[in-house]
Each structure stands twice: as structure tokens, then as C-alpha cells.
Amino acid sequence: MDGDIFGELGNSTQVDSRLLQVFQKSLLQAQDILNQNRLLINEINQNHESKMPDNLSRNVGLIRELNSNIRRVVDLYADLSSSFAKSREASSEGDSSGTLKSDGKVNQKRIRSS
């Protein structure tokens, strides 16, 4: 994939494949939520245009769901940013002992002196 951020990272630094899996999973989750938001927005617009009281009342719940979804996407991107920053810190220390836990967070192992 040309222009793929992970491909570019892989060329310049050694990136843990587990980190890439976590990023991919989080980005796919965000994309699924954004797709759901598109459908919600379309339904909200249709309800608004109909001006029918029942449809307008339904929009209240749909807008709450939309807001909740937006918060979830923001949280996913914040977690991604944090995980990426931690992985970069681990790799910039020149220490290959930084590992990625299943929750996407970097786990630092202490190296003992000989």
C-alpha cells in the first residue's frame, strides 16, 4: 500500500507486529463507529425533514447515540496516540526490551547489569 503509515514506519524503524495489530484493530473499530454515525446522521436528517412529531422525538435518542459514538471514537484515537507515543519512547531509548501488552500499552522490562 503506497502512503501506508505503517509501511513507512516499518521502513524507518523496527515496529513490533503486535503494535501494528493493535493499531489496525483500533482503527477498524473507529471506522465501524464512524460508518454507524453516517447512518445515524442520515436517519436524523430524514426525521428532521419529515417534521413528524414522532420522528422528531426519536431524534433525541439518535443524537444521544451519535454523541456517545463520537466520544468512543475520540477515546480510541487518544488511546492510539498514547500507545504510539509510548512505543516510540521505548524504541528511541535504544532498548529492545519494550514490549506491547494486549491492551496496546508498552510494558518496559528492566535490563540487569552483568
Q: Please state how the strands of the largest beta sheet are arranged side by side.
A: 1-2
Q: State the low-pLDDT regions, or none.
A: 108-114
What is the alpha-carbon Rg in Å? 21 Å
Per DSSP E runs of 2 or more residues, the count of β-strands stands at 2
Q: What does the largest sheet look like?
A: 2 strands, antiparallel
The level of helicity is over 70%
The rough form would be described as: rod-shaped
**Derived structural class:** mainly alpha
Helix and strand succession?
HHHEE
Mean pLDDT comes to 79
Give the termini separation. Answer: 44 Å
Number of helices: 3
> Strand portion, in percent?
under 5%
What can you see in these coordinates?
With 114 residues, the chain is mainly alpha-helical. The protein has helices at residues 5-12, 17-50, 53-92; strands spanning 99-100, 106-107. A two-stranded antiparallel sheet has the order 1-2. The N and C termini lie far apart (44 Å). Residues 14-95 form the Protein EARLY FLOWERING domain. Its main location: nucleus. Residues 84-114 are annotated as: Disordered.
